Amino acid sequence: MIRVSFNDGWRTRPKVNPFAELGGTPVPYADVTLPHDAMIGQDRAAPQGETTMAGGAGAYFPGGVFDYRKTFFVPEEHRGKRIAFEFEGVYRDAVVYINGDYAGQRPYGYSPFLIDADRFLRFGQDNEIRVEARAHQDSRWYTGAGIYRDTWMLIGELVRIVPGGVRVTTPDIDTDLASVEVATTIANDTIEIRTVPVRTQLRDATGTVVASDHSTITVLPGEAAVCRQRLYISEPSLWSADSPALYTADVELDEQAAVTTVFGVRSLSLDPVRGLRINGETVKLRGACVHHDNGILGAATHPDAEERRVRLLKEAGFNAIRMSHQPMSRAMLDACDRHGVLVIDEAFDMWTSAKSDFDYSLAFPEWWERDIEAMVANDFNHPSVIIYSIGNEIPEVGTPAGAAWGRRLAEKVRALDDTRYVTNGINGMLAVLDDLRAMMRPAEGSAEETQGINQAMADAGTAMDRVNASEFVTGKTAESFALLDVAGMNYAEVRYAMDRDLFPNRIIVGTETFPTRIDGNWRLVQDHDHVIGDFTWTGWDYLGEVGIGRPQYLTEQTPRPVHTAPYPYLLAHTGDLDITGHRRPVSYYREIVFGLRTEPYIAVRRPEHHGKTWAGSPWAWTDTLATWTWPGFENAPVTVEVYSSADEVELLIDGDSLGRRLAGPAERFRTEFETVYRPGELVAVSYSSGIETGRHFLLSAHDDLRLQMDAERATIGMDGLGFVAVSLRDRAGTLHTGADRSVSLEIQGDGLLVGFGSAAPATEERFDADERRTYEGRVLAVVRPTGPGKIRLVATAPGCEPADAVITVEEADVR
Question: Which of 255, 284, 301 is the last residue of a domain?
C-alpha cells in the first residue's frame, strides 16, 4: 500500500460537552501539525498546593481530554481501493470517528494501530476524521497527550501487500554467504482467485542490487497468503553496534509500487558461558534506560529528535537502549539501526495490577495480545532489536498467577518472533511487596508507624539490597525468571554472583540500576560471563517523577530525604544527559568506567553547599558542575572531584599543585581535593606508572558576556527539525555558568519555533514561549520548517549584543 503522510491540516482543542457548548461560547480550535503533544502547553500546578507522588509523577501537568479534527478530500478514483489510516501513537484511550461514525479505538497509548476507512468515506467529497485522546492519573511519568507520533494514509489495491506485510530474517550467515528469507503477506479482497507475480530485490547501502528473486503466488478470494522467498548475499556486510551495515528489500507485487524494507544481516546467540554474542562475538551491553519524551518538545515524537537522542547517547558511550516502559517509536528504531545501538524494547509497565488510578491495567486483559502483536510487528525487521521485555516491575511476578501471566506473554512473543530473546524487568522487592507490608506492620498497640513511602524510597538502595538477597525473593521469583531467556533484574546486582551458583543456567541483564553504582556494577558485568550488561536509570533526563535524582541536604526542617520534589519541580533530574542533550559529569565518569576515556575529568561541587550533609537518593549524582566559574564565592571553600582510570591524579590551580591522589578502579575511579575558589585555571593531570596519560582543563569565565548561537546542522529537510544551542560565553569562548539571564528569540523566514527551554529541573517557565532563562549558561531552541528556504534565529539578552544563526531548509530529507 502507498503510505502518504497525514500529519498536516489538523486542528485541536480540549474536548467540550456538546450540550454545554450549545448554550455557551464555542471553544475555538488551534491549527497544529503532527506529531503534537496537547499536554506540554498546559499550565502546571500542584494539586491543592500539595506535593504528592501522583502529582509529581506527571510533572504537575493536569491532563485532560483532547479533540483532534482534520478535513481531507478523497478523489473519486480511489473508490474501490482499500484505504486505511495508521496512527503510530495516540495517548491515550484513542477513539476515532470518520464522518461522524465510530471507526475504531485503541486503549494503549504506545501501540501503532490501523483504522480501516473505506466504508466510512465519501468519494469525490471532503471528509472529516476526528480523534479523541485522554490522559488522567494513568502513569508514573509524564506521558503527554494527543496524537504525538506520525500518522499516515494508506492506499492500496484489492490485491495488495498488507501493511507491515514484509518480514525479513537471516537464518544462515557466514563470511562468504548469507541467506535472506523474505516473507510477504498478500491479501485478496476480490471475489476471484488471483495469481500474481512477486519480484524482490535486495540492495546494499550504495543501492546496488546484490540479490533478486521472482515468484508467483495464488491467493484465494477473501483470504491472505504468504510468499516466502529465499535469497543469498555473497560476502555480506554484517550489522553490529560497531558497524551497522544495512540492506533494503524492495518487494513489488504485480506492477504496484514496491514496498521497501530496511534490514540488517546479523546473528544472535546466548549462553551463560559466552554471554550474548552478535555475529559470534561477545558483546557486553553498555545500556541506557530512556523514557519516550523529547524534553522541551514534550512527548511529540519527531524523527529528528529521536535521531538526535540516539546519536548523542551513542557518542556518550552507550551501545544499548532499553525503552522504558513502553514500545519504542518507529523513528527511534530506525535511528538505532543506523547508529548501531542495540535495543531492549519493552511492552508494558503494568499487567493486571494497577500502579495508577486509571492506568492501562483496566484494558490489559482484553487488549494485551493485540498490543504485543503491534510491538513485534513494529520491531521485526529492525536489526537493533535483540530482546523483547514483557514488563517492568510487575507486582504480580512474585505469585503463581503472575508467573502464569508472564509465561502467557513470553510464549506469545516467541510465537510471533523466535529470532530474539525475552526478558522482564523484575524488581524483587516489589515482587514481594505485599508480604513486606505485612511484616513491616507495627505490633498491636505499638506507637511506631509504618515506614512511609518517601522514606522507604529515599533509602531504596539499602532496602533493595537486603530484600533481593533474601531466600524469600529467590523462591518467590524463581518461576517468573525461569520462563525468560534473560533474567532482567532491576536494582538487584546483589544477586549476580549468588545466582551463578543457585541457577547455573540463568543469564542476567541489569535492566535498571542506580547510576551511583556503575563502577561496581560494571565490574560485575565484566567478571561474570552470565551477566550480559547494565542499563542505568537513566541515560537521558525526563519529564515527571520529579526530583528523584535531585541533590538533597539534611536540615532541621528536612531531617530525612524526600522522594518526590514539590512544585514547580519539572524533571526527574537523573540522567547522564540532561533534557537538552548536554552531558552531565556522571556521563564522563561512566565513560571512564567503561574504559572509553583515558583523560581525567573535573567536576566541582557547588560551593554554596560546602559542609552540608548529603542526602541524595541512589539516583542522584553529586551536586557537581564542570566549571571553574563561581562568582560571589571567591576564597570560599570548595570540593573538586576528579574522575580517572589512571593510578593517580594531580590537581593544579594556576600552575600550583595541590598534590597527587590515588584514583583508578581501587578508588572507584574518583578522588577529591579540598581547596578554595579563586578565578583562574584548574587542571587535572592523570598518571599511570608515573607516566602522564591525560589532562582536563577548566577556565574561569570573564564578565564580558556575549551570546553565542550554534546550529547543530546548517541544513535540514522539510520534515526535519533544527536544533540551535544558545549560550552565554566570554570573549574567549568560555561558557559562563554563573550569570544566567532571560533570552528572547525571534524567528525570521521559513520556520516556526516549536520548543525553547533549558535543563532547569525546577521552573514555571513554558517550553512554548519565545523567552526563556538560561540554566548553567545554556538554553536550547528547536525550529520546524514551514517551507524551503532560510530560517534565521535572532537571540537577545540583557547586557549582550544580539546573536543569530541561519539554517537552510531543503526539500529532500538530509538525515
Answer: 255
